Amino acid sequence: MIKPVIKNGFTLIELMIAMAISGMAMAAVASVFLAQVTGQISQDTSLEMTQGARAALQRMADEIRMAKCDPTQNANSGFITAGNANLNFSMDITGSTFGESDGDTNDPNEIIRYALTNDADGNGIADGTPCNLGRATGGGALQPIALNIDALNFVYLAPDNTNTPADADGDPDILASPVAAANLNNIEYIEVTLVARGGQEIRGLLRTYTDNTVYRNQQRAVILPAQNDDFRRLSFTSSVAIRN
Fold first, then answer.
1. Three-state SS for 27?
2. Total of domains in the chain
3. Within a domain: 4
4. Each residue of 69-103: pLDDT tens digit?
5. pTM to 2 decimals?
């Protein structure tokens, strides 16, 4: 008696089930991979913005803190102009034989100005790219100290009762910007806010990203409207007390 030949194999239903399971597994792997790549791109972009902006903000704070430094009382140092996006001040911190104050502000790094490098209308919002945070000394041209800065804002505060005795509330007075010449010596605190932008758009691979954030300063005033583009941005603020 001849035995029938039995051929082992898969049925169509089994193949379809196997393909479905494989497809779900591949989709899960792809999803995890995309999430990791997107997260890494976002993290790298944030790190780049954070390092540059924080270093620049710290430098600004250190120098602003020394505004009006005039140990000899002969240098006539102080705030020269104080606008919402432009700050110019002087200090007598060097120049003598021993590197101490010498009674003038004619030495390097004794007259400082901060502003955006691409802000023709002076409103504190970048007019295009590239736009950086600029620093100038002695009336020279602005030199970038932080790249890709979309907004710069200064808020000036004076001791309570500076404006009128009637507004006494125990809190510092906010001076109108640009600060009038008569009030420049009253500046006691300066709030500095920067909005840094990533150097390139973040497409997020298969996921889109749109920056629709409205950026504000510490007084909740809008300093950069929603840009509705694909760039990542971060806001940085610092409150600086004037020592002198």
1. helix
2. 1
3. no
4. 999 899 899 999 999 999 999 999 888 666 778 88
5. 0.77
